[in-house]
Amino acid sequence: LAWIMGLIRHVNDQDYIGWVDAKTGEPVRDADVKGNYEEYILSHTGIRLIEPDLALGYDPVKKHVLREVQIEHDMAPFEASADDAAAYKKSNGDRVDVWENAGGASWSVRFLKGALVRVPAAADAVALVGGMLPTGWIGGRFGIPEDIIQQVDPVTAFALVATVEAFVRSGITDPYELYQFIHVSEIGNTMGSSIGGLLAMQNMGHSRYLDKDVPMDTLQETFISTVQAWVNMLLISGAGPVKPSVGACATTVLSIDTAVDAIMAGKAKVMIAGAVDNLSEESSTELSSMGALSNNVEEMARGREPAEMCRPCTTARAGFTEAQGASVAVLMSASTAIACGAPIYGVVGMSATSTDKQGRSVPAPGKGILSSTREVMGAAPQRLLSVEFRRRELERQLRMLDVWKAEGLEQAADEDEDEDMSYKTSIEEQYVRQRKALQDSWGNEFWKQSPAISPLRGSLAVWGLTADDIGLASFHGTSTKANELNESEVVDVQMRRLGRTPGYPVPAVCQKWLTGHPKGPAAGWMLNSVLQSMRTGLIPGNRNADNIDLKLKKFDHVVYLSKTVQTAGIKAALLKSFGFGQVGGELLVVHPEYLLATLSRAQLDEYNAKLAQRDTKAARYWQDTLVGNHPFVQIKRHAPFTPEQEQRVYQDSTARAHYDPKTNEYRF
Known about the structure:
By secondary structure, this protein is an alpha+beta fold.
């Protein structure tokens, strides 16, 4: 954080190697960074008073509007160009006089009595607090070139940094490396946003109206699809599925659901999912006018600090705290992740989205996501839910398939040589296809199309889990009256339907008390928290939960923690996300050990060896960035193939990249 915020920098010269204070240039020992900068860092990260430099210049304390005023007497003339004078005359007619000055070099303009002008007037704002990026955050520090920063909307800079971090966390320091394992058409992108480029929208509306200079390509930066386009153009050069997502505050869960569908359908092996959103005067003002944001003026009058404004599930909750940022996740098929040795933080056991019933309120949360527990009451076949039963059936059918293959190859031996090879190849391909189909039929997809097994129950049973194995429920938890009541009821009803043991409630994690609500990226931040809980066994408490709403007491299957709890481990977690526009979303996340347990000892050893190499490589990448050996975001200057190779690479399904030690690049 000290580096990100520009408080320290690393030097490497003849006299000194190490950290120095960015202002004074004085050396700073590693051990002294916390002591020197902790107080500043804590007060300039997370939820705090909105900082104009990070909010596109918006200062809620100095908020103003333009109000129309009719002048009551002729004003003094002022000088203008001929074009401006003509424009004033065209707009105001006989309420303005214009004339050419002596010499013809300029014109004079005088507004007359009755003319209308707009003048700035102070306006009150009630949202004074936000979940902001760290003070001093700039894309240039991460290596984004200045010409790119000037061209793109700030949310694209957020996305570029977050995408590189997601790759590095996946042990991939160069995205082109993936083309050793997959075709360029097998990596896709579903990144989106709830709003899009807010600065570009400001330029297109406000700045144009005020006749300010606006970049010529401003329109493109307002499009939701533009963010993923820049990510692909500057970092990935992929040619796979592109499905930009927009689902308001549920955008990320929608993005992940779409990415999962693409992988499961065989359209891709790697997908980049997530969302970006900013905070500005427009978003803050309009969310406040809807009553969605906490009224910070009233909260301060009650003696609350900025960090106490967002209080999910409490009696006094009164709206959320808006935030800004990005969330990006790298999703891979399990076989791809294992083949390349990427760290697996969690398994998406199920993803689902839903709309809701008839209504007239776009923001109102609904219960449509309850459909993930739809099933014929009391009809769930227990044998089919058993992993042991499905394993036996799979093995039995695989033996039958082996017999079919052997008979086919034996028959092929009687054909002539050319036909023999063709028929053998066909048999082998069919065998692999049918084997995978059987594994799907008795594995991930055994419950599909069965009215007796709900998607959530079936997805748990794939891994031999039940409702009692859900270790936490990550709540959308916006700190609004309606959301917490609706979400608590949904989770409670689901747990009852799945048969969770009474008296064994699922802990609710409501992290927006700490992070604020970033709109589109929200579910990505929540997923990150879930993965941290799976790694550590810790269930974080809601530190602002000083008085849980008594209306939530009736939901026996949910417990609202105010303190962090250490558990023996989290086997599975359920994540909910709700967005304006009837967008409900849900993820079931399973601990990666359940996947790794399916590998043989030899496969696991091979995977762990690759994983150790990737961990080392990723750690070195971070270190080299901090000490200035290379930028964090390394913008690509060319595709991994030449123009002459392009068509062949796209059309050859076997085309793979290789590492060129001479250029230190991956290329075809």
